[in-house]
Amino acid sequence: MLKPIQIKEDLYYIGVNDRTKALFENLWPLPKGVSYNSYLIVDQKTALFDTVDICYSDIFLQKLETALDGKELNYLVINHMEPDHSGSLRLLKTKYPNIQIVGNKRTADMVSGFYGITDGVLVIEDGEQLSLGKHNLVFYLTPMVHWPETMMTYETTEKMIFSGDAFGTFGTLDGGITDKQLHPERYYDEMVRYYSNVVGKFGSPVQKALQKLGHLEINYICSTHGPIWTIPEQISKVISIYDKLSKYEGDEGVVIAYGSMYGNTEQMAETIALELAQQGIKEIILHNTSKRSHSYIIRDIFKYKGLIIGSPTYNNKLFPEVATLLAKIEERDMKNRYFSYFGSYTWAGAAIKRIAQFAESTNFEIIGTPVEMKQSMSLETYDACIALGKTMADRLIQDR
Questions:
Q1: What pLDDT score does 345 carry?
Q2: How many Å apart are CA 59 and CA 48, to the nearest integer?
Q3: pLDDT per residue as tens digits for the range 348-380
Q4: What would the pLDDT profile of 187-232 be if each residue is shown by its tens digit?
Q5: Is 248 left (phi over 0), alpha (psi -120 to 50) or beta?
Q6: Labelling 184: which of 62, 173, 230, 371 has CA 20 to 30 A away?
Q7: What's the CATH number for 254-395?
């Protein structure tokens, strides 16, 4: 029989690790896997917080049965209905037919739509409370963080917040499950990548959620992905990461993302990067869009203020990987970036015009004069790339 992990008195971790799935949401790479976290409070009444992906339902149900130790399961609190968390719901309902499913109206609609379950659903309102005995739960609706039904549940006795996907990270939990048991810094970049890839479009709803929950004293953040945050400094840090990302605030630095078929456009990117460094910019990230997953490029764009895009003309359009990246950036409604661009062509230029259209659709501040190269690097093109790099560096330095 598989055993749960007791986090503290009355609280058990019954999540699982997924080291098999290659792509999260069938989009984002998982080189370090991902965890699906579920929690159980055992009190006069028992409450389970979210389930796990259906692929791991057997492990999950064994851990749950062991943690209950013969007790009845009274409540399932659904903070988020995405199937990597609600996937085991139908099996859970079969095993525990008297369970009360707790969620808001939108949750109830999705429970019916996804799983055909309409009985035993307790619909709660924003701020409503539920007593388990010595543990009291308060429900806070946080729509569009990052689905319309998402909410967070705050336990008032131990001051624990079950936050759904918020404050989650990619990466499995390899033995340790709390920040005290592992090196939390190895999860920071994966938290930024998770936020930028999955939640990134919803900066305004995230800000509203942070403001709604800002008055709460929090001793534990129990997310549905990644470590459980318990150290006060770590709790402050992960909240500050979400606050900064949702305001679209970047650090000093530049991401240069480019496409290049035969290396000529890449030479432009290299030249711009060299001048940025000469001007004192130390954080310079070059991404070849054909070699690097867009997941990591988007992460870095969320991290840094400066963004420079380069593309050759391809079939009288943008290089396909660059076009796809620009669409993903546009989808996230990003703000507060300094933007420059460059392009190349052999016989008819279109890349610069296409990137200009993208620039007009964003809220970015356009920096410098776009550089367009015909065929290969000339002294004139080299100087123009140098000038572009210097102008971007000057703009970043103004903010120091």
A1: 86
A2: 15
A3: 889 999 999 999 999 899 999 999 999 999 999
A4: 999 999 999 999 999 999 999 999 999 999 999 999 999 999 999 9
A5: left
A6: 62
A7: 3.40.50.360
Query: 263 burial class (0-12, 13-18, 19+ CB within 10 angstroms)?
Result: exposed
CATH numeric code, 5-246: 3.60.15.10
- What's the pTM? 0.94
Nearest Cα neighbor of 41 from 208, 161, 211, 197 is: 161
In sequence order, what are the residues at sequence separation of 6 or more whose Cβ sits closer than 8 angstroms to the Cβ of residue 14?
4, 5, 38, 39, 40, 48, 60, 63, 64, 67
* Under 8 Å between Cβ of 383 and 369: no
For 306, residues 6+ apart whose C-beta sits below 8 A from its C-beta are 250, 252, 253, 254, 255, 281, 337, 338, 340, 367, 392, 395, 396
**Cα–chain center distance at 22:** 17
Q: Are 29 and 298 in contact (CB under 8 A)?
A: no
CATH 3.40.50.360 in the chain, residues? 254-395
